[in-house]
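Subject: two folds for Thursday's group meeting

Dear M.,

Sorry for the delay on this. The cluster queue was jammed most of the week, so I only got both jobs back this morning. I'm pasting them in the order they finished. Each block is the input sequence followed by the predicted structure tokens. Could you check whether the formatting survives your parser before we put anything on slides? The first protein is the one we discussed after the seminar.
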Amino acid sequence: MIQRGIEPDLFIYSSLIRGLCNSSQWKESTTLLNEMIKRNIPPDVVTFSTLVDVFCKKGMLSEAQIIVDMMIQRGLKPNVVTYNSLIDGYCLQSQMDEARRVFDAMVSKGCIPDVLSYNILIKGYCMSGRIDEASQLFDEMPQNGLIPNLITHTTLIRGLCHTGRPHAAEELFSKMSSHGCPPDIITYSTLLDGFCKQGHLDEALALFQSMKKSQSKPNNVIYNILIGGMCKAGRLKDAEELISCLSVEGF
């Protein structure tokens, strides 16, 4: 383009950087960013945020922070997309205190977290076994004008199950419809798996029966979870009945 006398603009540079990032060519994308600056084509928030996101996904958090600092030095304010990428990056590396620091910094600088911000942090806490902090964030959402969505509920239910609290997960599950987001098949499978792994097989069967009456009909994954749980507990008759149902359903 340049050899033909066509000067690339912000849109072209940003598109090229996004394409390079999508192809995991982060070094080339950084080179292009520096070229933009040298050619007096100021990158915007979207351009910087694209780079922050790719660095975070690659675990290159120091490089991501450098990009954020560069944004601020150039008079640009990171937006919720930028902060969400940073929070997610720290969560992926199990650096939950740093993730929370970024979340709090976002709030203190007047950038309002969205549902995705909370979902990312809740998932990070759940993956790190810090379920009480995840639950606290969940409870904070309505206070801040945000409604937990299906992903929020399912993530916390999974976290409660993984930390040996399936009945707390069941309580949250029972409130989902009243919260405006009825459980889907992933939510059902998550709670069923939690019940089976904790040995609460009667509760698992009861949930299975209620699922059959819901809009989320059992699939082969649901049957496999239940059959595996019954076999592991030595309840072979229940397993055989489930296998018979599986055949009738055509799986």
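Second protein, same layout:
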Amino acid sequence: MDDAISTALSKANFQKSDIDLLLAGDLLNQNVTANYVARELKIPFLCLFGACSTSMESVAIASALIDGGFANRAIAATSSHNATAERQFRNPTEYGGQKPDTATSTVTGSGAVIISQEISDIQITSATVGRGVMDLGITDPFDMGSAMAPAAADTIKQHLEDLGRTVDDYDLILTGDLSGIGSPILKDLLKEDGIQLGRKHDDCGLIIYTPDQNVFAGGSGCACSAIVTFSHIFQEK
């Protein structure tokens, strides 16, 4: 995370003193990675935990704070690590437990973005926050795609309704880490509401790895959407 933030500052030609707020989180207990990084940066720090949504949660909150005049520049950052996530949420890698095809592989990496009032080709125009926690009773820790798909579908539907838009208004509708299991479920759920995503949808968990990598249903974790969005997607804009 420290490297990602340093890279973002360097690309924008900013110093740490130019940043008003750091919004960051990770997957470890007490967001220890983000706290260690914040300890060194000495930037006013808001610590966030949204699990796999942390990257976009931090972006949405930072944007609202800047739009409201409470800050001029903010950094939104997150990170995750495969081994630590396996140890904390499933089984340590050394345990050697077998995984089903529905499992995802936590991405090891970090992403950071600087949000400001400066004019840029990349702009944040709106954000729709999901309505609470949608729990459909999925209890399998190796099938997160099925657990998250209903909330993703509901949030996309609400976003389109709030803004009076349709799928055709977007070049891409990107989800974080529904993987190869959750992505078809997302499309089926929205289809029931008359919303056809078609080829407009893609998932960071399906983009981050190549087909020849043994990652089961795809990628997951805080860094998954951050790395794909802040690098690959921005470069393809």
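Two things I noticed about the second structure. The CA atoms of residues 25 and 34 lie 5 Å apart. The longest helix spans residues 144-163.

Cheers,
T.
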